[in-house]
Amino acid sequence: MNKYLKYFKIGFLQSTEYKSSIILSFVSPFIIAVFFYFVWGYLYSLSDGLIGGFTFKEMIFYLIFGLLIHTIRSSELAEKICEEVKSGDIAIYLCRPVSFVKSVFAKGFGERIVQIVMVFIALIVITLVANLPIPNIQTLGILVIYLILFIIFDIILYSIIGAFSFWFTEIWGIRRAVEHIQLVLTGRILPLSLFPLWFSSILKFTPFYYMEYSFASIYLGKFTMIQAIFGVGMLLLWIFILLVILLIVYKIGFKKLEALGG
């Protein structure tokens, strides 16, 4: 365990190295929010006060939240793994008494500690400024669980994408394709409640439904506790499925690396 705590510490120190970058990553969502404010303000002026079950203030909160949660995603992880495979540095892990997959997890969590804290601070500030209801302790507990599972899922997903480097020279196309798919399916562009009922019903059996959309809906009190717990179960199921895929892919990938003399 001490070995992976060191990777966690390395990830944390690297994430705090460029403080200006951290600040800018949280300032930019609020700049974009100004654009959202005017666009959705016009759309709400044409409605009866509700769009997709969200009031104007809730919609702005929802969209800002989607931008904030994007700051803790692990998309860059895939490129880092790709660089290690191309350079051959990943072969070093074959000589170390550590698991490459576990070290990726530990370092990935360490890199996101600061962002997680800042996201919660931003959520509290937005809630107070917009005069939205403050979630109770039980809801906050569920939200913390959701966020942890979200990060685990994200790290696994982009680690799998990074593993394609064993077979392809570049993976940026695959990564971008996955990001664009998630942009729609997680509800970051529009709340999933605005999608056709048949489509959102299908999404409930995918992990994407239980990311940005569910997190924001729970925070705003639009999900019951039963729905929230069901979401936790679905995320755990998908994490297990992807974890099995991850272990199989890297087992095959490392064999291919050895065969190539890496």
Descriptive notes:
This protein has 10 helices and no strands. It is mainly α and 262 residues long. It has one domain. Helix 1 (2-15) crosses helix 5 and helix 2 (19-45) runs antiparallel to helix 3 (56-70). It is globular. It starts with a helix and ends with a helix.
Summarize the structure in short.
With 262 residues, the chain is mainly alpha-helical.
What attributes does this structure have?
mainly alpha, 10 helices, 262 residues
Topology:
Elements: H1 2-15, H2 19-45, H3 56-70, H4 75-87, H5 100-129, H6 137-163, H7 172-185, H8 197-203, H9 212-219, H10 225-259
| Rg value | 20 Å
Q: Multimeric state of these chains?
A: single chain
Main beta-sheet strand count, sense and barrel state: none
Q: Estimate the global geometry from the Cα principal axes.
A: globular
Instruction: Please state the average pLDDT score.
Output: 82
Structural class: mainly alpha
Terminal Cα span: 28 Å
The number of strands is: 0
Give start-end ranges of low-pLDDT stretches.
Answer: none
> What share of residues are in beta strands?
under 5%
Q: What's the number of structural domains? A: 1
Q: Which percent range fits the helix content?
A: over 70%
- Please write the string of helix (H) and strand (E) elements: HHHHHHHHHH
- Tally of alpha and pi helices: 10
